[in-house]
Specification:
Layout (H helix, E strand, L loop, with lengths): L1 H9 L5 H10 L11 H8 L5 H26 L1
C-alpha cells in the first residue's frame, strides 16, 4: 500500500484510485491450498485435489477481476 500511495501522490491522483482495487484484490486468492487458511483446510480434507482447486479457483479469480474492476470504476 505505501508504494501505491506514493505512486498516486507522484502522479497527482487520489491514492484511493490505486489502493481500493489493490486492497479488494488481496482477498481474492482462490487457486492454491497455500493461498488462504480455508483453502488449506479444504485441501487437507482430501476431497478436493489440486487440479480441481486450480480449475475452480481460476474461474473465481476471473470473476473477481471483473467484479473488482467494475466496482472500482463505480466507487471511485
Amino acid at each position: 500500500m505505501p508504494i501505491l500511495s506514493a505512486a498516486a501522490l507522484t502522479a497527482e491522483i487520489d491514492p484511493a484510485i490505486l489502493m481500493v482495487p489493490a486492497a479488494m484484490s488481496a482477498s481474492c486468492a482462490f487457486m492454491l491450498p497455500v493461498a488462504t487458511a480455508p483453502n488449506a483446510i479444504v485441501y487437507g480434507s482430501e476431497q478436493v485435489n489440486i487440479k480441481q482447486m486450480v480449475k475452480t479457483g481460476f474461474a473465481l479469480n476471473i470473476i473477481g477481476v471483473l467484479l473488482i474492476s467494475g466496482i472500482s470504476v463505480l466507487l471511485i
